Amino acid sequence: MGRVGTDQDLASERGVSCTGDLPAPSDPDLVERATVARKKLGSRAMVLGHHYQRDEVIAFADITGDSFKLAQAAAENPDAEFIFFCGVHFMAESADILTTATQKVSLPDLAAGCSMADMATATQVNDCWKALEKLGVAARTIPITYMNSSAAIKAFTGKNGGAVCTSSNAPRALKWAFEKGEKVLFLPDQHLGRNTAVIELGISLDECVLWNPWKPNGGLTDSQILNAKMILWRGHCSVHGRFSTENISDIRSRVAGVNILVHPECKHEVVTASDFVGSTEFIIKTVEAAPIGSKWAIGTELNLVSRLAKAHPDKEILFLDKTVCYCSTMNRIDLPHLVWAMEALVDGRLVNQISVEAEVAKHARVALERMLALP
Ligand code: 13P
Ligand code: SF4
To answer: What would you report as the CA-atom Rg of the chain, rounded to the nearest whole angstrom?
Structure first.
């Protein structure tokens, strides 16, 4: 069972448990086995698939979506007794928090973590908050945490008057926060925080400071903290962090008329040099609505970009970077793990259950429900 609420949530400490026989990836009957197991489970089970999942997994997803849509789906389907969450650990935790006490969530591979979520531990965030309290600014600071964070960080946020956000509602969450307070502590993705504050809310870069959890006082002077509107946590996504302005100028020079479309986890200079920015769901809808013959260079995870290219042969869909860029932890969930988890349930065993400790879940739910209620 996935432990929650302490710094032991780190992916490296979660461990992997695949008791029983994990089918070989080369098993020619995998698709047939998945089809049979899925049919036997019927409406008792629901498979949720994030847009970054492999095609072989997406083929068995009842609902696909970005992290916001999947959180909503978990909250709105109380009849599904079992949820197989094909995504990463923090998403499965959120599903467990938002579902009823009788529903159970399984993550087919417990090693499917998120390196960005692991960049903010509960101890580090509590230390930061204590420093803000000492300076007398905590009462005027609203914590906003990106969905890509542990349940413990979401609980901290709920306890301290804040909300969760995703890449599709970050502007609304920040506006909501600035109606309640003067400063925002944005966890753990500095890029989503900076891009949203500067591009969507018109906050200047000078009003954003970076809290480094590995340095005393976050590596900041008291006056830097006092003068800041946005205190950004020093976390980032290593997948989106690879995209550069050189990638953009290179592709613009090679492909006339290309549109650059990126995820807001990319660096600020990459987002400002792009034509469009938005969540995975936004990226899909933008490509779907684009005219035939249009050209798109997309800066997000490669499974999604490849799927878009296959689905839209009448448009030119390119990957923004020349080198391969999968999210290795999202890719941990493959068809063998999904088959293994579904067949175990057919045999009456739920494997890899993600169960958030009650006290943590209570406070984290407050922060998640504030997000779901955002105007
Ligand atoms: P979305 O919120 O767009 O689904 O993105 C989640 C994620 O992990 C992006 O790296
Ligand atoms: Fe985490 Fe980045 Fe993978 Fe998204 S793409 S799950 S932020 S490591």
So the answer is: 21
